Amino acid sequence: MTVLALARPDHQYLVYGAAAVICLVAFVTLILSPALSAHGRIWEKATAGFLAVFVLVALVLGGVVIGLVFVKYYPEIDSFIHGN
Known about the structure:
single chain; 4 helices
C-alpha cells in the first residue's frame, strides 16, 4: 500500500508536506509552547522562543547536511556495505 502511495511524484510531495506539518505541530506543542509558558516577563518569553526556534533550525540544517552527504557519497557507502 505504501509503495503505491509513493508511485507518483505528486503523492511524495503530499506525504512530505503532511510530515512537515506534523513535525511543526509537534514542535509547537511539545517544545515552543512550554518554553513560552514557563516564563513571565516578555523578554524571557522572547528569548526562550528565539532559542527554541534556533535549535529547530540547527536540527533541520544538520539533517539536510547529513542527507546531502549521504546522497553525495552513496556509491562509496554502497560499495563499502556490499564489499565490492
